[in-house]
Amino acid sequence: MVDQPGLFDLQDRSVDLSKCGDPLERLSPVVDCEVFRPTPDAALGRKDRSRGGCPPLDTAMMFRILGQSRELCAPNVGWRD
Fold first, then answer.
1. What is the pLDDT of residue 14?
2. DSSP code, position 37
3. What total number of domains does the chain contain?
4. Are residues 26 and 63 in contact, defined by beta-carbon separation less than 8 angstroms?
5. Do 66 and 40 meet the contact criterion of CB atoms below 8 Å apart?
6. Is 71 a domain residue?
């Protein structure tokens, strides 16, 4: 049987992340990622999905991920700066 998360496992995980200092919680009040949405949406040129297919990833979410990856990886790869 596959080990599936319990009823409150995801909520407990969120609480644990908050206690450890979740970087997204620090970033959200400072940076409004929705401001950056029009530029990537225009550049990506989303295709017509009337024939089906996977929904595209949210561009604001991808912007947050890129920002977080930069913040988390920068101390580890000082030779790139």
1. 79
2. S
3. 1
4. no
5. no
6. yes
| Tens digits of residue pLDDT in 3-52 | 777 778 878 887 887 887 777 777 778 878 788 778 777 777 766 677 77
**In the structure encoding, which two tokens stand for residue 52, read together?**
């089906």
Could you identify the residue written with the tokens 């009337």? Answer: 50
CA torsion angle 55 59 63 65 (round to 10): -10
Residue 1 within a domain: no
Question: Are the C-beta atoms of residues 8 and 57 closer than 8 Å to each other?
Answer: no
Alpha carbon distances (Å) from 61 to 4, 65, 77: 25, 6, 24
Instruction: Quickly tell me which residue has 């609480």 as its tokens.
Output: 15
The tokens describing 60, both together, are 């604001």
Q: Please check whether residue 4 lies inside any domain of the structure.
A: no
d(C-alpha 63, C-alpha 41), whole Å: 11
Q: Does residue 3 fall inside a structural domain?
A: no
